[in-house]
Amino acid sequence: MMERKELTLFIKSEAARVGFDACGIAKATAVDEETVAFIEGWTKEGKHGTMHYLERNCEKRYDPTLLVEGCRSIIVVALNYTPKRAIEGISNYAQGSDYHKAVKERLYMLLKSINEKIPCQGRAFCDSAPVLERYWAVQSGLGWIGRNRQLIIPGKGSCFFIGELIVDIELEYDEPYRQSHCGNCNKCIDNCPTGALKREGFDARECLSYLTIEYRGELPENIGEKMGNCFYGCDRCQAVCPHNRFATPNDTAELQPKPELIRMNAEKWRTLTKEQYNVLFSGSAVERCGYEQLMRNIKECKDSKK
Ligand code: SF4
Ligand code: SF4
Asked: How is the beta sheet containing 122-125 ordered, strand by strand?
């Protein structure tokens, strides 16, 4: 049987082989008290808006050993989504097929590889369970959380999906990433069109990503000016981040936009039918925002009113 160190190196090389751009490993333990207090305070103030799922399963969220019985280690991976060619109006992360599937399929390939070396039980997650993904990414040494609230991987930027394989084997653990390289920069805060990002914190209720994707009610008045041409999500606090200068376009087949999406234009968006929506977005993360909500956004979008 492989030694722990050798197995850890094998897992990291397999993570790269199946397509991940970074991999770090943390010991599965309860989340630190400071993080719990921060999240509790944030939700108590209602800054999570209507994302009530954040109020549920807190015990599991704060302790992954309650989520996956018998787990010992959290293997954290990152998959680049920087687009080669971005379709205007749609956030970079949603240009291709649903990322949950793309990440989890690769995580299960990784679990299969591990099982060829050692018996191992594990569960794969990607934005699909109460797991504090960015916290674990920092704990596993992948990078730091920028003032834009995103994980930033040194030398690679912030356009990454995060996934976790929570397993029942002991491994060698990475040191948490303790530095921030934001320095005196405040570009993300200064360029946030709604003021959702503030020096003193983040309020999801004002964020265009929340409003266009998660929020089902009527959009605030005059939000269209702030949306610009973006009707699904918002990338501005990432676009201005100097650490994304080093980002390279992804070459993951499933994350590329469909040809039908590439052929869209402002007029076609304005007159999109339910049938066309189904063709464009079946198997895409955009399905989270149903047809009616997407049309609500498109109508509000400044560029739709030209
Ligand atoms: S996604 Fe857009 S609206 Fe939300 S915090 Fe970032 S810049 Fe602000
Ligand atoms: S834009 Fe500047 S402050 Fe914001 S996350 Fe990037 S480096 Fe940090």
From this structure: 22-27, 73-80, 160-167, 122-125
Rounded distance between C-alpha atoms, residue 179 and residue 154, angstroms:
10
DSSP assignment letter at 155: T
- The amino acid that residue 285 corresponds to is A
Point out the residues that are catalytic.
127
| Local confidence band at 128 (pLDDT 50, 70, 90 cut-offs) | confident
**Atom of ligand 1 at shortest distance to CA of 208?**
3
Q: Which two tokens stand for residue 222?
A: 């005059």
Decide if 170 contacts 81 (C-beta within 8 A). Answer: no
CA of 230 to the centre of ligand 2 (A): 21
Which amino acids bring their CB within 6 angstroms of ligand 2? Answer: 146-148, 182, 185-188, 240-243
Residue 265, pLDDT above cutoff 90: yes
pTM: 0.95
* Predicted pLDDT at 306: 45
**Contact indicator for 168, 120 with CB cutoff of 8 Å:** yes
238 CA closest ligand 1 atom index: 6
Count how many residues are written for the chain: 306
Q: How far is the CA of 147 from the centre of ligand 2 (A)?
A: 5
